[in-house]
Amino acid sequence: CIRAIYSAELPEDMAMKVFVVDGMSDDGTRELIHDLQKEFAALMLVDNPRQLTPYAFNLGIYAGGTADFIQIIGARHIISGNYLSTAFKTLENDPSVWCVGGRIINEFTTYKSKVIATAMSTSFGMGIGNFRTLERSGFTDTVTSPMYPYFVFEKIGFFDEELVRNQDDDFNFRVTKSGGKIYYCHEISLKYYVRASFQGLWRQFYQYGYWKVYVNKKHKAITTLRQVIPALFMTYLFLVIPSLWILPFWLVGVPMIAYLALCLTVSIKKATGGLKLHDLALVFPILHLSYGLGYLNGLFHFLLLGKKPSVKQKRMSR
């Protein structure tokens, strides 16, 4: 990740500062950073004792001072050589664009992560309109590894530190609400190393659904229509399946058959390169059911009970 940043193209008149915001890692990360500092003298290490993502984002922005542009890059992301220069030119050429991000290339290190990466690269897995599956440049609702002009933070504030998950969705919703545009640039890309555990994937997407409701409550709006589909599907399962012998078949069976048929069709199409059909067909329900269940729990927790976020759901799925 660090080497890709320093290898990226930059305009001649632009200087760059790189800050690694670390949540007090005990896995050798900090020692690795110290070694890299011998090679890259301007590389700086910033401590994040709170160990959560929104604090990391804000600490990095604060450390950057009054930089003209802020680029956020996750440690799982390896940016393309043209990422920084193209994002910068996009922002410079169109003042209405307040945020730019690129195409995700899902990478894997194990068989399981390959299965997960394949599922996450499909519209069926991630939802129609999700930036992860876009095939051409254009405006969207959010992106990953975003670049912002610094004035955006002066105008709308920083990342909400109460949001363990979905803090980027919340921030980018505030961007569009304030009149800015978010641009997905297909010409720039980043490799994203996906998780290699089905259990970790379940926890990750359960938290996405759970925290999405908190974002909705905060803004008193549903930020995207695709976010409610998994929750509606879970509601269908909870209410209709127990009534198999009462309700007509078309109401009970047709939606389930349609879902399974679509799941099987996409799995057959994507089950190449040594991927097993049954493994791929398992990942799609994990994505959808975990998100839907998390969303329903969020509705119960935040809207019906009026509670604050659960401490349990602040646990990261690293």
Question: Please, could you describe this protein's structure?
Answer:
With 318 residues, this protein is an alpha/beta fold. Helices cover 48% and strands 14% of the residues. It contains 12 helices and 8 strands. The protein has helices at residues 2-7, 29-39, 53-63, 83-93, 111-120, 123-126, 151-156, 167-177, 198-219, 229-240, 249-270, 277-304, and strands at 19-22, 44-47, 69-71, 77-79, 97-107, 138-139, 147-149, 181-193. The strands form 3 sheets. Strands 4, 5, 6 and 8 form a 4-stranded mixed β-sheet that branches. The radius of gyration is 21 Å and the shape is globular. The chain starts with a helix and ends in a 14-residue tail after the last helix. The model has no long low-confidence stretch (mean pLDDT 89).
Topology:
Blueprint: H1 2-7, E1 19-22, H2 29-39, E2 44-47, H3 53-63, E3 69-71, E4 77-79, H4 83-93, E5 97-107, H5 111-120, H6 123-126, E6 138-139, E7 147-149, H7 151-156, H8 167-177, E8 181-193, H9 198-219, H10 229-240, H11 249-270, H12 277-304
Parallel strand pairs: 1-2, 5-8
Antiparallel strand pairs: 3-7, 4-8, 6-8
Helix pairs in contact: 5-12, 9-12, 10-12, 11-12
